[in-house]
Specification:
Blueprint lengths: L2 E3 L6 E3 L2 E3 L12 H13 L4 E5 L6 H10 L8 E6 L1 E3 L5 E4 L3 H15 L4 E6 L8 H14 L2 E7 L3 H10 L2 E7 L11 H8 L2 E5 L33 H18 L3 H10 L5 E5 L4 H8 L8 H10 L12 H4 L9
Parallel strand pairs: 3-4, 3-12, 4-5, 5-8, 8-9, 9-10, 10-11, 11-12
Antiparallel strand pairs: 1-2, 6-7
Helix pairs in contact: 1-2, 3-4, 4-5, 5-6, 7-8, 7-10
Protein backbone atom coordinates (compact mmCIF):
# COMPACT_ATOMS: atom_id res chain seq x y z
CA UNK A 1 0.00 0.00 0.00
CA UNK A 2 1.47 3.33 -1.05
CA UNK A 3 1.45 6.22 1.38
CA UNK A 4 1.15 9.93 0.87
CA UNK A 5 1.69 12.96 3.07
CA UNK A 6 -1.65 14.38 4.16
CA UNK A 7 -1.15 17.95 3.05
CA UNK A 8 1.99 19.93 3.78
CA UNK A 9 1.73 19.55 7.55
CA UNK A 10 0.13 16.15 8.05
CA UNK A 11 1.20 12.58 8.71
CA UNK A 12 1.91 9.93 6.11
CA UNK A 13 -1.28 8.01 5.43
CA UNK A 14 -2.37 5.25 3.06
CA UNK A 15 -3.48 6.53 -0.35
CA UNK A 16 -7.00 5.32 0.45
CA UNK A 17 -8.81 5.48 3.80
CA UNK A 18 -11.72 3.61 5.38
CA UNK A 19 -14.80 5.64 6.35
CA UNK A 20 -16.55 3.75 9.13
CA UNK A 21 -19.85 5.67 9.43
CA UNK A 22 -21.97 3.06 7.66
CA UNK A 23 -21.05 0.49 10.33
CA UNK A 24 -23.20 2.34 12.86
CA UNK A 25 -26.66 2.47 11.39
CA UNK A 26 -26.59 5.53 9.14
CA UNK A 27 -27.42 3.36 6.12
CA UNK A 28 -29.69 0.91 7.89
CA UNK A 29 -28.71 -2.17 9.93
CA UNK A 30 -25.11 -3.37 9.84
CA UNK A 31 -23.43 -6.55 11.07
CA UNK A 32 -21.06 -5.99 14.00
CA UNK A 33 -18.84 -9.01 13.34
CA UNK A 34 -18.60 -8.20 9.62
CA UNK A 35 -17.82 -4.55 10.43
CA UNK A 36 -14.91 -5.55 12.68
CA UNK A 37 -13.71 -8.10 10.11
CA UNK A 38 -13.80 -5.33 7.47
CA UNK A 39 -11.71 -3.01 9.65
CA UNK A 40 -9.21 -5.83 10.23
CA UNK A 41 -9.10 -6.58 6.48
CA UNK A 42 -8.46 -2.89 5.76
CA UNK A 43 -5.59 -2.73 8.25
CA UNK A 44 -4.13 -5.99 6.93
CA UNK A 45 -4.24 -4.56 3.39
CA UNK A 46 -2.19 -1.57 4.51
CA UNK A 47 -4.93 1.02 5.07
CA UNK A 48 -3.77 3.23 7.92
CA UNK A 49 -6.46 5.95 7.95
CA UNK A 50 -9.75 5.20 9.75
CA UNK A 51 -12.38 7.93 9.74
CA UNK A 52 -15.21 8.26 12.25
CA UNK A 53 -17.35 10.77 14.14
CA UNK A 54 -18.30 10.76 17.81
CA UNK A 55 -21.96 11.16 16.80
CA UNK A 56 -22.05 8.10 14.49
CA UNK A 57 -24.48 5.85 16.31
CA UNK A 58 -24.09 8.16 19.36
CA UNK A 59 -20.65 6.73 20.18
CA UNK A 60 -21.28 3.25 18.76
CA UNK A 61 -18.80 3.76 15.90
CA UNK A 62 -15.94 4.81 18.16
CA UNK A 63 -16.51 1.85 20.48
CA UNK A 64 -16.63 -0.48 17.47
CA UNK A 65 -13.31 0.85 16.17
CA UNK A 66 -11.85 0.66 19.68
CA UNK A 67 -12.80 -3.01 19.83
CA UNK A 68 -11.35 -3.67 16.36
CA UNK A 69 -8.04 -2.03 17.32
CA UNK A 70 -7.46 -4.12 20.45
CA UNK A 71 -4.13 -5.90 20.13
CA UNK A 72 -3.10 -3.81 17.12
CA UNK A 73 -0.11 -1.47 17.01
CA UNK A 74 -1.58 1.97 17.76
CA UNK A 75 1.19 3.76 15.88
CA UNK A 76 0.27 1.96 12.63
CA UNK A 77 -3.19 3.53 12.55
CA UNK A 78 -4.31 7.13 12.07
CA UNK A 79 -7.66 7.91 13.68
CA UNK A 80 -9.53 10.82 12.12
CA UNK A 81 -12.42 11.94 14.33
CA UNK A 82 -15.16 14.51 13.72
CA UNK A 83 -16.96 16.11 16.65
CA UNK A 84 -19.53 18.78 17.39
CA UNK A 85 -22.77 17.41 15.92
CA UNK A 86 -25.56 17.29 18.50
CA UNK A 87 -28.28 14.64 18.53
CA UNK A 88 -31.28 13.88 20.71
CA UNK A 89 -32.47 10.58 22.19
CA UNK A 90 -34.46 9.80 19.05
CA UNK A 91 -31.32 10.24 16.94
CA UNK A 92 -32.47 13.53 15.37
CA UNK A 93 -29.89 16.22 14.60
CA UNK A 94 -29.88 19.19 16.95
CA UNK A 95 -27.21 21.55 15.64
CA UNK A 96 -23.49 21.91 16.36
CA UNK A 97 -21.39 22.95 19.33
CA UNK A 98 -17.91 24.31 18.65
CA UNK A 99 -17.33 26.11 21.97
CA UNK A 100 -13.88 25.49 23.49
CA UNK A 101 -15.31 23.82 26.62
CA UNK A 102 -17.44 21.57 24.40
CA UNK A 103 -14.35 20.63 22.36
CA UNK A 104 -12.56 19.49 25.51
CA UNK A 105 -15.62 17.53 26.64
CA UNK A 106 -16.17 15.81 23.27
CA UNK A 107 -12.49 14.83 23.11
CA UNK A 108 -12.50 13.31 26.61
CA UNK A 109 -15.38 11.00 25.69
CA UNK A 110 -13.80 10.10 22.34
CA UNK A 111 -10.52 9.04 23.93
CA UNK A 112 -12.44 6.84 26.38
CA UNK A 113 -14.65 5.19 23.74
CA UNK A 114 -11.76 4.50 21.38
CA UNK A 115 -9.53 3.32 24.21
CA UNK A 116 -6.59 5.46 23.08
CA UNK A 117 -4.61 8.31 24.62
CA UNK A 118 -4.41 10.54 21.55
CA UNK A 119 -6.29 11.26 18.31
CA UNK A 120 -4.29 11.66 15.11
CA UNK A 121 -6.59 14.16 13.35
CA UNK A 122 -9.38 15.94 15.22
CA UNK A 123 -11.87 18.13 13.39
CA UNK A 124 -15.19 19.93 13.88
CA UNK A 125 -17.82 18.13 11.77
CA UNK A 126 -19.30 21.44 10.62
CA UNK A 127 -18.89 25.13 11.38
CA UNK A 128 -20.82 26.22 14.47
CA UNK A 129 -22.42 29.49 13.26
CA UNK A 130 -22.38 30.86 16.82
CA UNK A 131 -18.67 30.26 17.50
CA UNK A 132 -15.77 31.79 15.54
CA UNK A 133 -13.70 29.09 13.86
CA UNK A 134 -10.65 30.66 15.53
CA UNK A 135 -12.06 29.71 18.96
CA UNK A 136 -12.81 26.12 17.99
CA UNK A 137 -9.43 25.57 16.29
CA UNK A 138 -7.68 27.35 19.16
CA UNK A 139 -9.22 24.89 21.62
CA UNK A 140 -8.00 21.93 19.54
CA UNK A 141 -4.57 23.59 19.35
CA UNK A 142 -4.49 23.56 23.15
CA UNK A 143 -5.20 19.82 23.03
CA UNK A 144 -2.32 19.41 20.56
CA UNK A 145 -0.01 21.13 23.06
CA UNK A 146 -1.34 18.85 25.81
CA UNK A 147 -0.59 15.75 23.69
CA UNK A 148 -4.17 14.54 23.24
CA UNK A 149 -4.34 15.47 19.54
CA UNK A 150 -1.61 15.22 16.88
CA UNK A 151 -3.10 17.20 13.98
CA UNK A 152 -6.05 19.48 13.21
CA UNK A 153 -8.41 19.02 10.28
CA UNK A 154 -11.59 20.70 9.05
CA UNK A 155 -14.79 19.38 7.51
CA UNK A 156 -17.32 20.86 5.08
CA UNK A 157 -16.20 24.49 5.41
CA UNK A 158 -15.67 27.12 2.74
CA UNK A 159 -12.57 28.96 1.57
CA UNK A 160 -12.85 31.93 3.93
CA UNK A 161 -13.24 29.69 6.99
CA UNK A 162 -10.29 27.56 5.87
CA UNK A 163 -8.09 30.67 5.63
CA UNK A 164 -9.15 31.92 9.06
CA UNK A 165 -8.53 28.54 10.66
CA UNK A 166 -5.10 28.18 9.06
CA UNK A 167 -3.95 31.43 10.69
CA UNK A 168 -4.54 29.91 14.16
CA UNK A 169 -2.86 26.53 13.60
CA UNK A 170 -1.58 24.45 10.65
CA UNK A 171 -4.48 22.52 9.09
CA UNK A 172 -3.54 19.14 7.63
CA UNK A 173 -6.66 18.33 5.65
CA UNK A 174 -10.20 19.26 4.76
CA UNK A 175 -12.70 16.43 4.79
CA UNK A 176 -15.40 17.11 2.24
CA UNK A 177 -17.65 15.32 -0.21
CA UNK A 178 -16.06 14.87 -3.63
CA UNK A 179 -17.08 12.51 -6.40
CA UNK A 180 -17.91 12.43 -10.08
CA UNK A 181 -21.36 13.83 -9.25
CA UNK A 182 -20.31 16.18 -6.39
CA UNK A 183 -17.65 18.49 -7.79
CA UNK A 184 -18.45 21.77 -6.07
CA UNK A 185 -15.04 21.97 -4.36
CA UNK A 186 -13.27 22.45 -7.69
CA UNK A 187 -14.34 26.10 -8.02
CA UNK A 188 -12.94 27.71 -4.86
CA UNK A 189 -12.35 25.26 -2.01
CA UNK A 190 -9.83 22.94 -3.69
CA UNK A 191 -7.67 25.81 -5.06
CA UNK A 192 -7.65 27.41 -1.58
CA UNK A 193 -6.53 24.15 0.05
CA UNK A 194 -3.79 23.73 -2.53
CA UNK A 195 -2.57 27.28 -2.02
CA UNK A 196 -2.32 26.66 1.74
CA UNK A 197 -0.84 23.14 1.53
CA UNK A 198 -3.95 21.48 2.95
CA UNK A 199 -4.82 17.94 1.84
CA UNK A 200 -8.30 16.64 0.98
CA UNK A 201 -9.86 13.53 2.47
CA UNK A 202 -12.76 12.92 0.10
CA UNK A 203 -15.84 11.20 1.43
CA UNK A 204 -18.87 10.17 -0.61
CA UNK A 205 -16.63 9.09 -3.50
CA UNK A 206 -19.40 6.67 -4.52
CA UNK A 207 -22.09 9.18 -3.53
CA UNK A 208 -23.37 6.94 -0.71
CA UNK A 209 -23.54 3.96 -3.03
CA UNK A 210 -25.50 5.74 -5.76
CA UNK A 211 -22.64 5.52 -8.27
CA UNK A 212 -21.24 2.23 -6.94
CA UNK A 213 -22.81 0.24 -9.75
CA UNK A 214 -24.71 -1.82 -7.17
CA UNK A 215 -27.52 0.58 -6.26
CA UNK A 216 -31.08 -0.24 -7.27
CA UNK A 217 -34.00 2.14 -7.23
CA UNK A 218 -36.08 1.89 -4.05
CA UNK A 219 -33.39 0.09 -2.01
CA UNK A 220 -33.30 2.71 0.78
CA UNK A 221 -35.51 1.65 3.68
CA UNK A 222 -36.38 3.28 7.03
CA UNK A 223 -33.38 4.28 9.12
CA UNK A 224 -31.30 4.78 5.97
CA UNK A 225 -30.16 8.37 5.36
CA UNK A 226 -30.60 7.81 1.63
CA UNK A 227 -34.38 7.53 1.99
CA UNK A 228 -34.37 11.32 2.58
CA UNK A 229 -31.54 12.22 0.21
CA UNK A 230 -32.66 14.23 -2.87
CA UNK A 231 -30.50 12.25 -5.28
CA UNK A 232 -32.20 8.99 -4.32
CA UNK A 233 -35.73 10.35 -4.62
CA UNK A 234 -38.25 9.48 -7.32
CA UNK A 235 -37.74 11.78 -10.28
CA UNK A 236 -34.01 12.23 -9.57
CA UNK A 237 -32.77 8.71 -9.02
CA UNK A 238 -33.72 7.63 -12.54
CA UNK A 239 -31.57 10.36 -14.11
CA UNK A 240 -28.69 9.59 -11.76
CA UNK A 241 -28.81 5.86 -12.44
CA UNK A 242 -28.74 6.65 -16.17
CA UNK A 243 -25.40 8.40 -15.54
CA UNK A 244 -24.21 5.26 -13.75
CA UNK A 245 -25.11 3.14 -16.78
CA UNK A 246 -23.14 5.49 -19.03
CA UNK A 247 -20.20 5.17 -16.62
CA UNK A 248 -20.64 1.38 -16.61
CA UNK A 249 -19.98 1.30 -20.36
CA UNK A 250 -16.66 3.10 -19.79
CA UNK A 251 -15.79 0.76 -16.91
CA UNK A 252 -16.69 -2.35 -18.94
CA UNK A 253 -14.47 -1.20 -21.80
CA UNK A 254 -11.60 -0.93 -19.33
CA UNK A 255 -12.37 -4.25 -17.63
CA UNK A 256 -13.10 -2.73 -14.22
CA UNK A 257 -16.22 -2.14 -12.13
CA UNK A 258 -18.20 1.09 -11.86
CA UNK A 259 -17.09 1.56 -8.24
CA UNK A 260 -13.44 1.07 -9.17
CA UNK A 261 -13.51 3.63 -11.97
CA UNK A 262 -15.38 6.15 -9.76
CA UNK A 263 -12.82 5.79 -6.94
CA UNK A 264 -9.91 5.90 -9.38
CA UNK A 265 -11.29 9.11 -10.89
CA UNK A 266 -11.21 10.85 -7.48
CA UNK A 267 -7.68 9.59 -6.81
CA UNK A 268 -6.59 10.81 -10.26
CA UNK A 269 -7.55 14.40 -9.43
CA UNK A 270 -4.35 14.87 -7.41
CA UNK A 271 -1.89 13.23 -5.02
CA UNK A 272 -3.21 15.60 -2.33
CA UNK A 273 -6.62 13.88 -2.43
CA UNK A 274 -7.17 10.73 -0.34
CA UNK A 275 -10.46 8.93 -1.10
CA UNK A 276 -12.34 7.55 1.91
CA UNK A 277 -14.28 4.42 0.98
CA UNK A 278 -17.32 3.62 3.12
CA UNK A 279 -17.15 -0.17 2.78
CA UNK A 280 -18.80 -2.02 5.63
CA UNK A 281 -18.33 -5.49 4.15
CA UNK A 282 -15.14 -7.24 3.14
CA UNK A 283 -16.29 -7.88 -0.43
CA UNK A 284 -17.00 -4.18 -1.00
CA UNK A 285 -13.63 -3.32 0.58
CA UNK A 286 -11.83 -5.74 -1.74
CA UNK A 287 -13.55 -4.15 -4.74
CA UNK A 288 -12.51 -0.67 -3.56
CA UNK A 289 -8.90 -1.73 -2.92
CA UNK A 290 -8.67 -3.05 -6.48
CA UNK A 291 -9.26 0.53 -7.68
CA UNK A 292 -5.66 1.26 -6.65
CA UNK A 293 -4.47 -0.74 -9.67
CA UNK A 294 -6.66 1.24 -12.10
CA UNK A 295 -4.69 3.74 -14.16
CA UNK A 296 -6.68 6.37 -16.04
CA UNK A 297 -5.10 7.98 -19.09
CA UNK A 298 -6.27 11.14 -20.86
CA UNK A 299 -8.65 9.16 -23.09
CA UNK A 300 -10.19 7.43 -20.08
CA UNK A 301 -10.72 10.75 -18.29
CA UNK A 302 -12.35 12.22 -21.40
CA UNK A 303 -14.67 9.22 -21.68
CA UNK A 304 -15.60 9.47 -18.00
CA UNK A 305 -16.30 13.20 -18.36
CA UNK A 306 -18.50 12.49 -21.36
CA UNK A 307 -20.44 9.80 -19.46
CA UNK A 308 -20.87 11.90 -16.32
CA UNK A 309 -20.55 15.62 -17.16
CA UNK A 310 -19.95 18.07 -14.32
CA UNK A 311 -23.23 19.14 -12.68
CA UNK A 312 -25.18 16.38 -14.46
CA UNK A 313 -26.58 14.87 -11.25
CA UNK A 314 -30.23 15.48 -10.36
CA UNK A 315 -30.87 16.69 -6.81
CA UNK A 316 -28.61 18.11 -4.12
CA UNK A 317 -26.10 16.07 -2.15
CA UNK A 318 -28.03 16.80 1.07
CA UNK A 319 -31.61 17.97 1.67
CA UNK A 320 -31.98 21.75 1.14
CA UNK A 321 -32.46 22.45 4.85
CA UNK A 322 -29.05 20.92 5.60
CA UNK A 323 -27.27 22.54 2.65
CA UNK A 324 -28.50 25.95 3.82
CA UNK A 325 -26.48 25.55 7.04
CA UNK A 326 -23.29 24.20 5.45
CA UNK A 327 -20.41 26.65 5.30
CA UNK A 328 -18.92 24.78 2.32
CA UNK A 329 -22.02 25.62 0.27
CA UNK A 330 -21.63 29.38 0.71
CA UNK A 331 -20.03 31.01 -2.29
CA UNK A 332 -18.43 34.36 -2.99
Amino acid sequence: MQRVSLGKYGPEVSVIGLGCMGMSGMYGPSDRAESIATIHAALDAGITLLDTGDFYGMGHNEMLIGEALKGRDRDQVQLSVKFGALRDAAGAWAGYDGRPKAVRNFLAYTLQRLGVDYIDIYRPARLDPDVPIEDTVGAIADMVKAGYVRHIGLSEVGAETIRRAAVVHPIVDLQIEYSLISRGIEDEILPTCRELGIGITAYGVLSRGLISGHWQKGAAKGGDFRAMSPRFREGNVEQNLALVEALRRVADAKGVTVAQIAIAWVAAQGADIVPLVGARRRDRLAEALASLAVRLDADDLTAIERAVPKDAAAGGRYPEAQLAHMDSERHG
